[in-house]
Every structure is written in C-alpha cells, then in structure tokens.
C-alpha cells in the first residue's frame, strides 16, 4: 500500500453547467486502451453525453462512479431515474498511496459542487494532483482557440490530465528540451528508451455545431497534439479522448420527436481540427509549466519543469520572441 502522503483528487467538467441537464452531442477516441473511461459504450451508441465528466486516479474509478450517481440523485432528485456516468482515469501510484482508496464520496461531491465558470486551475489540482508528465511533475492543463466558421466565430477548448512520457521524448515548440534536461528523471535509469510510460485523458469542448461523427474526428486529432510534445503512446498507456459540442440545445429530447439542428459541413471543419491539435499541444505544456515539485508516498520526489532553463534552451533555438 505504501506509506506517506495522499496525492490525488477529482476533476469535474459540466458541459452545460450544473443545473442544465440537456445532453450534448459527443464523440470519443481511444488511442491506446490500457485505461478506462466509463460510459463510452452508450455515448458511442447514442451520440450523446449525459451529465458531467469526472477524472481521477485509476483505482478510484468505482468510488467516483458511485458518488456521481449519488450526487445527481441528491442535488436533482427529479432530473433522471438512471445514470451512466463518464469517469476517466490515469495512474498516480508513484506519488500517491493509490491502494489506500482515499477518494471518498465527500471529495467527489466537493469537486462537483465547486465546479464553475472562468479560468481553470492548472498543475497539481484535482485529478491531476499526483500525475507525472515526461518525468517532470504533470497534472491538469488547459488551452483554447477562437475559430472562424462560415458565418460565426467559435470557441474550442481542451483540458488534459497529463501523466505520460519519458524525459528524452519531450518537445517544446519542436525543440528537444528533454534531451538537455536529463537530471532528476525518476523512470529513466537503465530502462529501454523506447518504453513509454503513463497515460492521458483529454476533453475537447466547443460551441461549434457538430455531429457525433465530427466530434470523434476532433477527439482523434488530440493524438496529434500529444505527439507534437513528443509522446508515442506506448503499450502501457491509457490514452482516451472525448469531444462534445454545446450547440443544438434540445437535440436529445425535442418536443415533437423531431430535432432540427445546425451542423457545420465537413468542408468547413478544417480549422476546428487544427485548433484541436494546437490547443492539445499547448494544454500539455501548460500542465508542465503550472505544476510544482512534489514529494509523495515513500519519499518519492518529482521535480517541476525548470522555467529558467527552459527559456534558455528555447532561446538557443531561436524560439523566443524577446
């Protein structure tokens, strides 16, 4: 079980806010399936996401899943009689006493009740508390883009729980910084350099009107954004991505049984695909930049990405505009 600190938590995402239970169109993609994101069978079958998205550590999936249902029934007893919550995970067992099962119902309730609008905390927060990325402290990261559509400007945002990568793989703005920042890499040692570590969960949100099949295409592009930071998605990775659209309210339950919706044509979706790649790349880097050093169970220590040295390396490659 391990000794020492609890280094874990829960992140909650509400597509339309806590009090709006209108399902949203959604799609998902598994780049490598050594992980879990519950509820995907029905999401893929129906094309809709019902309720919030929760992200935590691997061994707390069950506790969070049960707690979400309890929270929904307690806070909104008349809203629905069934629930298949979406709960994703990554493994934080190096820093966290993961087999101590420390995530309880009250922690999930706190995450759900405290979720709000505005800037999102990054780094060692929520489900990202004990996560490690490229052998630096990782965690929660976000980024967004404004995208010009056929007759409107849309917003696309990405949230990641970054817990993957070997140090030598790390790229920032195309620069192989991981090959220069070689100290304090806890997993490198004598291991095969081609052996990948860890996992990542990503959530893509947009107000652009898209169908589930188009949203799956966005979810697929998350993989390209991650690759731009250096990862190759190894055998032990759980790399799962979900995309949803807040457009077309009422599409799941139209009054007369027929939903009349708006959809961007595939000929005009290219900018959204590009925005997904760019925002994902930046979200991963933001998780690294925001994270702080951490000492976890049994004295395990993970350092943060050194900002000063990173700037020096990027400057030497002419990547900084100063």
Tell me what the CATH architecture is: 4-Layer Sandwich
How many separate domains? 1
Total E-strand runs:
13
CATH-defined superfamily: L-amino peptidase D-ALA esterase/amidase
- End-to-end gap: 49 Å
Which fold name corresponds to the CATH topology? Answer: L-amino peptidase D-ALA esterase/amidase
Number of helices, counting only DSSP H or I runs of 4 residues or more: 6
Question: How would you sum up the major sheet?
Answer: 6 strands, mixed
Q: Pick out the low-confidence regions.
A: none
Mean pLDDT equals 95
Radius of gyration computed on alpha carbons: 20 Å
Overview of this protein structure:
The longest helix is centred in the last third of the chain and has 21 residues. The chain is of the alpha+beta class. The chain is built from 6 helices and 13 strands. Helix 2 packs across helix 3 and helix 4 packs across helix 5. The strands form 4 sheets. Strands 3-2-11-10-9-8 form a 6-stranded mixed β-sheet.
């Amino acid at each position: 079980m391990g000794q020492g600190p609890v280094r874990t938590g829960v992140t909650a995402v509400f597509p339309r806010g806590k009090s709006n239970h209108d399902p949203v169109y959604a799609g998902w993609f598994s780049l490598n399936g050594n992980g879990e994101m519950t509820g995907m069978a029905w999401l893929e079958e129906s094309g809709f996401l019902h309720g919030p998205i929760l992200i935590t550590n691997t061994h707390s999936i069950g506790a969070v899943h049960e707690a979400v249902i309890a929270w929904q029934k307690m806070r909104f007893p008349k809203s629905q009689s069934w629930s298949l919550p979406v709960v994703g995970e990554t493994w934080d067992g190096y820093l966290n006493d993961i087999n101590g099962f420390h995530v309880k119902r009250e922690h999930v309730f706190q995450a759900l009740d405290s979720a709000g609008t505005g800037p999102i905390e990054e780094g060692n927060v929520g489900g990202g508390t004990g996560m490690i990325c490229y052998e630096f402290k990782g965690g929660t990261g976000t980024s967004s883009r404004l995208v010009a559509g056929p007759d409107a400007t849309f917003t696309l945002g990405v949230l990641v729980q970054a817990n993957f990568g070997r140090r030598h793989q790390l790229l920032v703005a195309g620069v192989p910084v991981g090959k220069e920042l070689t100290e304090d890499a806890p997993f490198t040692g004598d291991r095969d350099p081609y052996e990948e570590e860890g996992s990542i969960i990503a959530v893509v949100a947009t107000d652009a009107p898209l169908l589930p099949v188009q949203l799956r295409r966005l979810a697929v592009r998350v993989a390209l954004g991650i690759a731009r930071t250096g990862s190759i998605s190894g055998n032990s990775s759980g790399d799962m991505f979900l995309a949803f659209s807040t457009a077309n309210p009422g599409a799941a339950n139209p009054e007369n049984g027929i939903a009349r919706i708006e959809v961007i044509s595939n000929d005009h979706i290219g900018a959204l695909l590009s925005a997904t790649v760019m925002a994902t790349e930046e979200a991963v880097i933001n998780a690294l930049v925001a994270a702080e050093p951490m000492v976890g169970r049994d004295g395990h220590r993970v350092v943060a990405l050194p900002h000063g040295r990173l700037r020096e390396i990027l400057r030497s490659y002419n990547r900084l505009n100063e």
